[in-house]
Amino acid sequence: MGSAALTDAVKSICDWSMTEGRATLTSPSKAAELFGSLAFSDKEQEARLPKGVYASLRATIRNGEPLDVATADAVAVALKDWAVEHGATHYTHWFQPMTGITAEKHDSFLSPTGTGSAMTEFGGKELVRGEPDASSFPSGGMRSTFEARGYTAWDPTSPPFLRVDSNNVTLVIPTAFVSWTGEALDKKTPLLRSMDALSKQAVRVLKLFGSRAKRVVTTCGPEQEYFLIDRNFYFARPDLINAGRTLFGAKPPKGQEMEDQYFGSIPERVLACMADVETELYKIGVPVKTRHNEVAPSQYEIAPIFENANVAADHQLLTMEMLRRVAPKYGLECLLHEKPFAGVNGSGKHNNWSMSDDLGNNLLGPGDTPHENMQFLVFCAAVLRAVDRWQGVLRASIASAGNDHRLGANEAPPAILSIFLGDQLTDIFEQLEKGAAKSTKAGGTLDVGVSSMPKLPRDAGDRNRTSPFAFTGNKFEFRAVSSGQNIGWPNMVLNVAVADALGSIADQLEKATSGGQDLKSAVAKLLTQVVREHKRIIFNGNNYAKEWEKEAGRRGLLNLKNTVDALPELIAPAVIKLLEAHKVLNEREIRARYGVYLEAYTKTINIEGQLMVLMANRYIVPAALEYQKQIGQSVAALKSAGTTSVQSKKLLAKYTKLVDQFKAQTDALDALLAHEGGSPEKHAKYMRDKVVTAMAKLREIGDAIETLTPHAIWPLPTYREMLFVK
Ligand code: ADP
Ligand code: MG
Asked: Which of 292, 351, 352, when mutated, tests ligand 1's pocket best, judged by the most ligand atoms within 8 Å of its CB?
């Protein structure tokens, strides 16, 4: 079986290289032409909308001003015409329920009339509001099935686009998803609310510095890590199909220890697939820019140019979807799970985050002499305060069964949140702690030592790859975010945390300056205070080191090692107060999410446990018994030939013992899974403490059996095949 999948995989590579893919590589001029060609972009809006309508739509998009009914009607007409001209027959409100994936229900533009003809019908009403049956989405108890009403509400700030498939075209309209009572049932609504909250507080601070800015948006550039493996292997692995990760699999002789994969040459079939994904993303206006090999074999990364965080979150979801949708065309399957393979790196999503005002200034841009850049230092200090004060809920925002395999597993950032500032900024903040900052450490130049090569400008500090939250020049990078999750959620938490810190800073500075103190000395005092209060969150060293865990403990930083420990942070009284004060989520909405995420954890572990039992009983045990029989027959044959082999007998004993242990452990896991009930908390804890432990034990024995079983008998594709046949 394993070898059958291998033969098919080799065949699919050959098939591909003879036929597909080569024509999809896109030249820069073609890419420019394609970019946004399937999106109802700014350019398209300007060309198609009456001047006044266009202006009020822009005011909504740029400044968050409310949109009136007449504008919505006019936009709907232009949008429909544009979509129908491009062949669209249907439209869908596209939304982000609490499941973590996206949802859509398609409606036709056509409505049959009594006379048998058909006419298109799509007005402001249809654009602005949709009504999917909400009862089948998780609501965390906010909506019982007899109150099934949920509405999707058009998000005018994220451009609609066309989904083009082989025989159909659909207009996709990004929407928020709310209940009949107006409570958020999704991940977009809280993100949008948090961006409003941050803007409000940031504008207060900017005003103190004499800025005319009216609005601040958070910007985001998420780097997506993923695996691509041959689809034939995928189909031969029930665990990959149903859990997204391998639950068994012995470590191959070669993993990532040669460090020859990161930034390595991209295999041809993979590159063709990437190019196709990028082309499709260009068309719908997703500005993808970077591609490269990642650290693990068969692991890659795709990153866009940053955008407004709301649009970035939509585009990030579309990037994941496009990777999944395009890969099969190349005989590949895209794995977005945080840890598809044990023993090699898992996947994350580096969430680059900053704030930008409506005059185009990046508020985290330090300039050449950051020590003089008071405004920059204040915004930077706000992030320090935010991450230190709200480390618990930030940790909770990235918690999931999948991410538990990554955080703290010596390859990804630890579960402890801390901030890397780099030498230059750390030096400035150290000066500030003592009073005032008088200088900025310069980077100077770097001499390569080859006379023909120019001297290179050098950054003032080295990079740090181990920090969960790093300042990287003009933005912060939240690296503990997981590969499979919707970035809207952690960005929402980050926005509110920073809004809160900015609010406290604005309070203090407003009070000082209205009491007659000059801004400069008020800021100096504030910065010194912030550093003294929050310097424990700054850590520039190696976050993987055991020493750091101890040091972080001494500093009183939280170390929430898994989802079950982290999630309660979301419902801490201070967090509920924070989210309510900034009008981002009310207590019911928060508790609903807590319930949904806790249940998702329990369900995930339960599915994985059941899959392991299934694979053990129906794949591994039968194969193992077959080999056991073969060894037994060989021992018997030797005996009847009047000879004996010590090694054969030893092998038989060893193998039989393993198989016995394996079957016993399978039954033990099965019995554990039959356990029911208790509160959701108790059940989740039980899963973590009992089931996850039993799964690990079963895997260990299963992997030991794999290393002894003949390739021809082993029923599953191996790590060596899945990771190295490209
Ligand atoms: P690296 O992390 O490898 O240094 P880059 O500097 O290329 O990477 O940036 C990584 C990501 O950060 C890209 O998606 C980029 O668009 C994004 N980014 C750059 N500036 C900002 C910003 N001001 N706000 C948010 N994201 C940003
Ligand atoms: Mg990066």
From this structure: 352
